[in-house]
Structure formats: C-alpha cells, structure tokens
Design a protein that fits this description.
By secondary structure, the chain is of the alpha/beta class. The chain is built from 20 helices and 21 strands. Among the domains are: 3-31 and 42-167, Rossmann fold (3-Layer(aba) Sandwich), CATH 3.40.50; 173-249, no CATH class; 471-590. Helices cover 35% and strands 17% of the residues. The strands form 4 sheets. Strands 1, 2, 3, 4, 5, 6, 7, 8, 9, 12, 13, 14 and 15 form a 13-stranded mixed beta sheet that branches. Helix 15 (481-495) packs across helix 16 (497-506).
C-alpha cells in the first residue's frame, strides 16, 4: 500500500480536565473501538474530544461546562498522537520537523523516532479557561519556544466523520457535510451562480404584494431612526454565498430529497458515503443503534468492521472507528476484542478492552454472545445457570411489589455463569474490568479454591449453597412442605405428569414405581425432600453417550415462577440456609 493509501489513525489519546474527564490515557485499537459503560461514564465526551482535537476551526469557542467540573482554574487539553499520516502532513515544510515515534508493541510514544517505530505526530487542542477559545498546536518534548500551530486547512485531512443523531444534513453539499468534503466537478460554482441569478429574476417578476405591509413598516422605522435610504425598500430574493451555494444542493430520489428519509436510513446512507469516498478519515458514531432495527445494525457493523465497498475494483478499506452503544444487539455482534469498558471514578477515566489477558477469550466471547446485557450493567449477579437467572427475576418482581428497589434501579443484572468454575472465572474477568460482581455457587460440584480467592481479592463477593446443594436441592430442603407441594403442582403443570413420575422412578431413591395417587399423599421427610430434589434435577445416560437433561426447572421462565413460589414463604423460614443466602444477596443489591 502506498503512503497516500494509508488510513490515518489515532495511536494514543491523552485527555485532561475536559468536561467530566480529569485524566484519561488510552491506546485504542486500529479498527473498531466500541465503548460501553454505565451512564455518565464519559463515553460521548471521548468522542467529542476526538472530534475537537482533529477539527481545528477559526474562532471556535467552548463554554464553562467544557472545564472539568466547571472549575475556572482547570486547563482542558486533548492530545492525540496520529500514525499512518498523509504525505501533506509529514513533509519538512509542514510538520516534518516535529514528528515522533510510536512503538506499537510497547504502546509507547518515543519523542525521537527509534528503529521499528511508526512515524507519529501529536496534535494538542487547548481550551483557554479565561477566553474559552480553543487553539490547536503540534506537540513534542523537543520544542523550544512557541509551538507550531496546527492549521485550520489541515482539518480536511484529519477531521473525523461524525455520525450523530441528525444525519440528514450530510445528504447535502453543505459546509462540513460529508458530500461537501468530496470533490465537486469543475463547473459546480458556475452552475450555482447562474441558478442564483435566475432565481432572483423569477422572484422579481412575480407578485410581491404580500410583502408590502412589512416593507412599508420597515421603511418608516428606518426613517424614524435616520437610517439612510437610497432608492426605497422592496422585497427581493437575497441568495448569497451562505444560502444557494453548495448547501442548497442535496441528493434527491426523483423529486424527493434524501434528507427526508427516516433517521435510520439517513444514518446508513451517510455512513456508507463517508466511508467510501476518496477521503478516508476516522469515524465517530454515538449510539450506533439509534433508529436501526437489529438486522440493519448487523449490516452496518459488518461494514464498519470489514470495510465499505470502494469505487471500481479497489478493495474495502477498514477505518478506525470509535462508537458508543447501549444496545445488547450491538454488543452481541462484536468480537470481545472490539469492546472497551469505560469507567470514570472521580473523573479518572479508564478504558479497558473486554478481551481477557489470561487465555479466557473463548469464555468471554461466549458471554458476549449469550449475555450481552451483562456488559451493559455496572453490577452482575452471577448464578449457575438459567434456573438461577429466572429465580432472581421472580424474586425481583415481588420485591418491587413490596416497594423495594428493583434490580434495574440498582444497576444489577442476573446472568447465567455457565457452571461453577466458569462462573468464577467470568466474575473475575468482569471484576477486573470495573464491574461489581456477586457470584452464587452450587456446592454439589467442586470449585477451584484458587479461582475463588482470586475473585475475592479482586473485590468480588461469593456465596455458596450449604451442604453440597444446588439451588433446587436447597429449596426442597428448606421450604415448608406446603410450598414443596406447590412446587410439585407447578412441575406437573409445565413438564407433565409422565416426566415427574418417571423422574422419581429413575432417581432410584424411592419406590421402583410411583403413581399420581402415591405422589399426592407423599409425607414430609428429609429423605422424601432429597428424593424430590434429585428428580427435579435428573440427568440420565444416553445409549449414544452423554446425558439427557430431564430437569423440571432448567429454564428461565420456570425458574422465575419457582422464585415467586418460594418468595411467599421466606418470612416464615428466616433461619434456613436458603433464606439467609437470599438475604445476603438482597443486602448486596441494596448496598
């Protein structure tokens, strides 16, 4: 690839005292950087900082909210180190004397370029807290005296493509629009000037009497204030360079302007145009899912990740993209290496890649696909499987009915951890990314003590069902017998009498044969409770190998109803291991 074909990208970001960011240092990925995190974690602020840093504008001013915590003594700075630079920026007459080196392996800037370093240029945007004016300059540590200014004309080479809520303006040839950045033909200006003259002549020849009253009033006011008048006021079409210039020309589908498309269609059109033209810049997308159905989200992400089609036979080019999302659909479609978790305690913003550093990438990717909601919530309640997820959802519904705060209000999501060791490993990974995690473990299968200790040391909390139990066994052992009967009735309803009775027979802990009449008169005893628990979670060997899961409640919906059945008896059994553990979880939720 020739130098002119390189796609400029940001190798290093350093932001200080800008809006909610006290300090942020980040080396983003060369391709897709999808930022996720709780509200007000400064995701959009990062996009804004990149846009400001790479878009020098004459006389551009900020405001007090651009200062960290509106503190007039703060001095916002945005430093962006760029690599794969276009030729026009690296020539000696431009910024060639101020270049630096970027070590990709070490993620380090060298002020003097070393062997193996990529050529880099650091652009710094500074906001004067007194005048609130932005200025742009080139930065390196070798500079003596006044640093060189980063020119306004260079914005054409560096300004990112921002895909925001109002994409329709990019479907005209207006100032700073995507179409406006593309080259126009040689006769465009002459055509516009001719159109202006024709429009003015047509307006002057028409009936302008509807403007007469306003014209006379204005003429009188002018006379009252001694405003000089040469020939007399009249209404004329005033089309100057800011109106019927490029901005008055827009794309049409027949007679219908494309700017009237829906917000989702407009965003897709603009994304395609700005990434397929001759000027290939960094792309910024805030809330990618806005106005898009899941299938259109998938299509847009595919192009952002693998490149948009280019003109002719040119291969697709992958741009560096920074985007934010609050949608599980977006998270589910991305690779774990493309997700970046943003946290901002006291303004100290961190951006961490969701890819594990210790060889658990496959497990993490599985959770991206199966539990995308987990990556969008600040707090995770991690259980053994689908039954637990449903169980906590059922309890949450009834807690809300008692005027307790919901899991959603507290930022908690219950997720399927996929088995004991997997649950602990996933919890450890998420805890390191800044999530607050509570893992509830079964004790019928051993769990690595080493992993549990690592999880606790990282700040995670662990609870375990007592006495070699999973959740179903603990429930059958602890709830009143009347509740056990209610659970059996629910099992008969959802899996059928045949499955319930055959499981009891196959469990091998009671009579070799049992019918409905015998089940209806089953007496309360510890042995019978253990028998019912074994039948409820039964797995039997298959002739072809493996095991058939014949469980009664291994389903989120059934687990939810199980939670609602248990809820009604919890106040009657406060000293049981079941109630104690549930209360421990509730205290964590409310903390």
């Amino acid at each position: 690839m020739e130098q002119d074909d390189f796609i400029m990208r940001i190798a290093h970001i350093l932001i200080s005292e800008f809006r909610g960011i006290k300090v942020l240092e980040w080396s983003p990925s060369p391709s897709v950087n999808c930022m996720i995190g709780p509200g007000d974690s400064c995701k959009t602020t990062i996009l804004d900082a990149i846009e400001i840093g790479l878009s020098p504008r004459y006389g551009y001013t900020g405001s007090d909210p651009d200062l960290f915590r509106c503190d007039p003594t703060s001095k916002p700075e945005i430093c962006l180190t760029l690599v794969d630079l276009p030729d026009e920026l690296v020539v000696e007459q431009k910024y060639g004397l101020y270049l630096r080196g970027w070590n990709e392996a070490a993620k380090k800037i060298n002020d003097e370029k070393a062997d193996g370093d990529q050529t880099a240029l650091t652009v710094k945007a500074l906001l004067d807290p007194e005048t609130l004016e932005w200025k742009w300059e080139i930065f390196n540590e070798r500079l003596e005296g006044e640093p060189p200014r980063f020119g306004f004309k260079d914005a054409k080479s560096t300004a990112p493509n921002r895909l925001g809520e109002y994409a329709d303006r990019h479907l005209t040839w207006g100032r700073n629009s995507v179409l406006g950045r593309l080259e126009k033909g040689p006769n465009a200006s002459e055509l516009l000037a001719s159109s202006v003259r024709q429009a003015k002549a047509s307006f002057a020849a028409g009936d302008r009497s509807s403007f007469d009253d306003v014209v006379k009033l204005t003429e009188k006011v002018g006379a009252d204030f001694l405003v000089p008048k040469v020939q007399g006021y009249e209404a004329q079409l005033d089309i100057h360079s800011g109106m019927l210039a490029s901005g008055a020309v827009s794309l049409h589908d027949g007679d219908m302007p494309l700017r009237t498309l829906g917000s989702g269609s407009s965003r897709l059109m603009v994304a395609g145009v700005q990434n397929s033209g001759p000027k290939q810049n960094i792309t910024l997308v805030d809330e990618l899912e806005l106005g898009l159905e899941p299938h259109r989200i998938m299509r847009l992400l595919r192009f952002l990740r693998s490149g948009f089609p280019q003109q002719g036979d040119a291969p697709p080019i992958v741009h560096q993209t920074f985007l934010t999302t609050h949608s599980p659909v977006v998270v589910c479609e991305l690779d774990v290496s493309e997700l970046f978790c943003v946290r901002s305690p006291a303004g100290n913003v961190s951006v961490e890649c969701a890819r594990p550093s210790e060889g658990q990438e496959e497990t993490a990717q599985r959770h991206v696909r199966s539990n995308p909601n987990a990556f969008l919530a600040p707090r995770l309640l991690i259980g053994e499987g689908r039954t637990e997820v449903g169980f906590w959802r059922g309890l949450d519904d009834l807690w809300c009915a008692e005027d307790k705060e919901s899991f959603a209000y507290q930022g908690v999501v219950a997720i399927d951890g996929g088995g004991n060791d997997n649950a602990v490993k996933f919890g450890l990974h998420m805890q390191k990314l800044g999530y607050s995690c509570f893992t509830l473990l079964d004790t019928d299968v051993p769990v690595s003590e080493v992993n549990k200790e690592k999880f606790k040391e990282a700040g995670g909390q662990v609870a375990e069902w007592e006495d070699d139990c999973d959740i179903e066994r603990r429930i059958f052992l602890d709830v009143p017998w009347a509740t056990v009967r209610e659970i059996i009735d629910y099992a008969l309803e959802v899996v059928g009498e045949g499955r319930v009775l055959s499981n009891l027979c196959l469990a091998g802990m009671g009579p070799a044969d049992i019918d409905r009449a015998a089940l209806n008169i089953l007496a309360d005893s510890e042995d019978n409770r253990i028998w019912l628990a074994a039948a409820a979670t039964l797995k039997v060997a298959k002739n072809t190998g493996g095991k058939e899961d014949r469980s009664w409640f291994k389903d989120m919906t059934r687990g939810e109803q199980l939670g609602k059945i248990v809820f009604d008896c919890l106040k009657a059994i406060p000293e049981t291991p079941l109630a104690i553990t549930i209360n421990e979880v509730r205290h964590w939720v409310d903390a």
